[in-house]
Amino acid sequence: MRLIKNRLGWLDEEQTLVIIFKTKEAKTVPLHIDDFLRMRVIAGKAKGHRLKVPTGTYVRPATDLVRGAIFSILETTAGDWSRVLDLFAGSGALGIEALSRGADWVDFVDHEPRCCDIIKQNLEKTGLTAQTHIYCCGVAKAISFLDNEYSIILMDPPYSNSSISNIITQLATSKLVGTNSIVVVTHSPHLPLNPTYATLNLVKQSRHGDSCIEVYRKESNP
Fold first, then answer.
1. Of 125, 123, 50, 62, which Cα lies nearest the Cα of 90?
2. Whether 184 contacts 177, CB under 8 Å
3. CA dist 10 to 21, 38, 157, Å?
């Protein structure tokens, strides 16, 4: 890689900003700034594909550690991966991970047009577009008009969103949650969630740094 120095720093031949790292062995390692704005699919048929992440928006994508923890839980608790709903989808990383691991269909919901465009790009890159639909609208609105029952519902909202409990309550009383549905919510430890929302009960929780994962299921009828 041929690098050029200018007032902004180091650029490659395509004028992309490059950050230079020094290893313990004093070797120089160039890393494109774009690498900070992408994630990779962790496992499954799309493993290793890099995913683009929207910038300049509210998006705070789940880290590889958190995504890995979420799907480790789902691998042992979810028997049905037929239909998945990715709310506050952002880059679509969670829904794409589900598709890569065998989900039949994923609906993505995000109100930010820039995010919807990036989800489309990421789906095209991973070759998973045919198994999806993108709804570019608010989550509350989507819950009000979607009429499918989902086996897995993923929610990775902005951690500053204080209305998440209201959204979970709306979701819990909707037709989207069935008897065997699993709802996974990530949130900040500074905004704790309730153990129960209508018919949804907390069945598992874990914390990874500044991210908490809560898993809910619908209570069984006696």
1. 62
2. no
3. 12, 20, 35
Domain total of the chain: 2
CA distances from 107 to 12, 73, 92, 101, 115 (A): 38, 21, 10, 15, 14
**pLDDT one-digit tens code per residue, 159-208:** 888 899 999 999 999 999 999 999 999 998 888 999 999 999 999 999 98
My answer on whether 137 and 214 are in the same domain is yes
Q: Are 164 and 95 in contact (CB under 8 A)?
A: no
Q: What pLDDT was estimated at residue 158?
A: 87
- The alpha carbons of the chain give a radius of gyration, in whole angstroms, of 19
Q: Is residue 188 part of a domain?
A: yes
pLDDT tens for 120-162 read 999 999 999 999 999 999 999 999 999 999 999 999 998 888 8
Tokens of 149: 């029952």
- The dihedral through the CA atoms of 166, 167, 173, 178 has a sign that is negative
* Parent domain of 13: 4-36
27 Cβ contact list (under 8 Å, min separation 6): none
Question: Could you give the CA distance from residue 160 to residue 53 in angstroms, rounded to a whole number?
Answer: 19
Residue 107 lies in a domain: yes
